[in-house]
Amino acid sequence: MTRKSALFAGHEVGAENWALLASIVATCKLNDVNPVAYIAETLTAIIAGHPQSEIDHLMPWRFRKTSSQHQQGGG
């Protein structure tokens, strides 16, 4: 995702949304997390009623630890 791509957001709100998504993807990559899996599981958790007071549990740096435990059967 580049600055050139953000120029075509079409609207200020679109550009803000683009920046938010780019930030999430970059943070996932920095933490060796698959961005698509992270976003899908995080949105599923939010829709299922994940408490806002426990938002820290949904951060990408915690997702890797949780997802690797599930892969190893340590769930």
Summarize the structure.
The protein has 75 residues and is mainly alpha-helical. It has helices at 3-6, 12-30, 35-47, 60-71. It has one domain (3-71).
Walk me through what this model shows.
This protein has helices at about 5, 10-30, 35-45, 60-70. It has one domain (about 5-70). The protein contains 4 helices and no strands. With about 80 residues, the chain is an all-alpha fold. Residues about 70-75 have low confidence and may be disordered.
Structural class: mainly alpha
Q: Tell me the helix content.
A: 55-70%
Q: What is the count of helical runs?
A: 4
Shape estimate: globular
- How many beta-strand segments? 0
Question: What's the rounded overall pLDDT mean?
Answer: 80
End-to-end distance, in Å?
A: 34 Å
Number of individual domains: 1
Strand content: under 5%
Largest sheet: none
Identify low-pLDDT runs. Answer: 71-75
From N to C, what is the helix and strand string?
HHHH
Blueprint (SSEs and pairs):
Elements: H1 3-6, H2 12-30, H3 35-47, H4 60-71
Helix pairs in contact: 2-3
Throw out a few tags for this protein.
75 residues, mainly alpha, 0% strand, 4 helices
